[in-house]
């Protein structure tokens, strides 16, 4: 991967311009002058302009991930805002939202300010999500208003659920004052117990402690009902089960304030992939049955899910080398995201490419209230350029995260990110 400053004039030449806002694909060029969009389609750039050959490639908005864990402050041995930014660039992501379950958690205006200041030095745009409760212990609400003023874009205790329904109600009611999304990691811990995987025939066969799909869907249902009661905005993260998608689909018919995301890994893997005890497949919520996977794929196609989010969760090799029941939950996912979801959704399930790219660009930006008109003249260039057809195998050398806990190593991918443009720089991957 090579990162260089953009020349004064840059032309992205001969590609297919995929505009996720208009929902169109057209052949054309893009002219970037002084780091800003000058024109899209037909361009009139000086002969001295730097040319990026985009023949056979698609030029679109930079990908945006509303759910990553960059581990700073506290566990910089796993990831920092800088190393996380490199993983993002390699995956075509120009903008991410970091979850607050750092050490200490992002639960105060000062910690939000710290993250915003630090992110200014990083090569992508990073927005902090503030904790819902102080210390993420579920007992006392944080100062949401002051945290928003410092740059928080949403609230979540992710990693942990808000177990107390009264507390969740209070958080949603408080959030209506600011019209920002509340994101709850939906797992009923009383049902989850010490479960490390999805409960079903595979868990019985492997002899591992497991938790059923209703561990998630019960709490998703509760959160949807509380959203209806309070009028707040709820964003449901990393949906893993067929039952949860049914609840979300039904509520979205009557409530437009509900949004939801799905991860690449819940679309790509099933619990049967756990037979070789790869601890990189130990995630929360767990990878479920093929029936659940198929329901998630259907929900991507019918618009029940608004966006793809990676839940990029770095862990050290030492931790992941433990036995399956002791290893921490989580996998990295930024570098492998596009090749994995494009394979599952566009190649294998015939989804329209434009609709998939909308789930990586305009839709997540809308949820978080970010600018969506990235092809408009004068906007800072924030673009991703990919080959939608390239077949390749994901390997260790494709990882730029400080951690390497990826179950995609050795997996076949379809489509590959080639260049990322953000903050005045061009990255060649
Ligand atoms: Zn979570």
What does this entry look like structurally?
By secondary structure, the chain is α/β, with parallel strands linked by helices. The protein has 2 domains: 2-59 and 377-388 and 415-428, Urease, subunit C, domain 1 (Roll); 62-368, Metal-dependent hydrolases (TIM Barrel, Alpha-Beta Barrel). It contains 14 helices and 19 strands. The strands form 4 sheets. Strands 1, 2, 3, 4, 5, 6, 17, 18 and 19 form a 9-stranded mixed beta sheet that branches. A hairpin with a 2-residue loop joins strand 18 (412-422) and strand 19. It is globular and about 65 Å long. The mean pLDDT is 98.
Keywords, please?
single chain; 429 residues; Urease, subunit C, domain 1; TIM Barrel; 14 helices; binds zinc ion
CATH topology of the largest domain: TIM Barrel
- How many strands in all? 19
CATH architecture of the largest domain: Alpha-Beta Barrel
What fraction, in percent, of the residue positions are helical?
Answer: 25-40%
**Chemical compounds bound to the protein:** zinc ion
DSSP summary: helix tally: 14
**Sheet of most strands:** 9 strands, mixed
Query: Rounded to an integer, what's the Rg over CA atoms?
Result: 21 Å
Gross morphology is: globular
The residue-averaged pLDDT reads: 98
